């Protein structure tokens, strides 16, 4: 008896079969292609999400059954990156490319919605993109358009035939959509699927998908989460002071708190666990930034990390501001760009690699410092994603963040978050917190080093460089109108 979990990432789909006690029975991934061109265009083919999910899911199930044919899938759930958006017709066929969570072209629509909402709505969010797609469509395209989906909801629709929009809490409506905003923008509300809370059963597995996966039709399909919340639950960052360090193309420190931050530079949203909050900030181009530098140096990320680990340390240390694609929380500046600083003739490839790694960690430290200054506890980070498997990075984060860093056995914590949603839906547990704490197994722990002065000096240089590049005419804004 097991749970089948899917996570739709920026560069790949992951699928896993997870036992009821959290043991990994089978896992597979399939790559996804994306289109990135000048002008802020970041698109992908939504139909490939479904195909990759079915192939990866079948492989994960086959792995598990090879070890024990008795394994049976009790239910399925899908998480995925948001706010990626696709418009589809009544049969579920995409009407064009999906707009990635990185796509920033809906600037005018975001400005219009920000005025309506009385808070800053980023061009990457759901509704500005939906507004852009609708207004650019011709009459025939508008007639064909049946639903707007984010990527996990689209795959869940393909598996079940039922349309829904994941809504972890009513506090997320301004960042997804609500009827007032839809009406004010002049959009038809019947193109937006009804809300479903994580852990709700939204349908059952259709025969065609079941055949592709190699299992029986009819298994329940359970509403999951946006990927960041799936990782928060799947890393068991469900007690105040614990944080999920969610790594990937982007990276964010998601701190569990009893209240929202009073500092509007941090992103404060309701936690998946009732009466708790998720306070976050990070680096939008962390993993993507390391891949960028690795390609320039004609190596891969693993080679970059090896060079960074071997770098010489010294007073004339190179530094890096990792803002290659602008930044969201806590800087909220789409015009930010990456910068190497403190360069000298004595430095080379290894020092640049080390600076890139440290810069990413200092970006996380910037968010944690704001949380601590606001009186929010932060005493543990649990790392999720591929970078969680890199001991050098985990140790560096422990040293720079000054808290222990723990690594779960299943690195892709989004998959464990899906499993927790399934456990709740099936009545195996009484709450998401109970599900998370029972499913997550910790494999490794990294303690902060005793010597911290070197990194304190590095963080001070990082902040000085950041402040030196601050535009004097720039008005600092909060992402919300009235921070709590």
Molecular structure report:
The structure is a single chain. The protein is of the alpha+beta class and 484 residues long. The chain has two domains: 2-224, Nucleotidyltransferase, domain 5; 229-468, ATPase, nucleotide binding domain (Nucleotidyltransferase, domain 5). The chain contains 15 helices and 22 strands. The strands form six sheets. It has a seven-stranded mixed sheet, sandwiched between helices. It has a six-stranded mixed sheet with strand order 3-2-1-6-13-12, sandwiched between helices. Helix 8 (227-234) packs across helix 13 (413-425). The mean pLDDT is 93.
Helix/strand-derived category reads alpha+beta
- The general outline is globular
Fraction of residues in H or I helices:
25-40%
Per CATH, which architecture of the largest domain? Answer: 2-Layer Sandwich
Low-confidence stretches: none
Average residue pLDDT: 93
State the domain count: 2
Main CATH class of the largest domain: Alpha Beta
Largest sheet: 7 strands, mixed
Q: Radius of gyration in whole Å, from Cα?
A: 22 Å
Strand order of the largest sheet: 16-17-15-14-20-21-22
First-residue to last-residue Cα separation: 44 Å
Strand content: 15-25%
How many beta strands in the DSSP annotation? 22
Q: Please report the number of helical segments.
A: 15
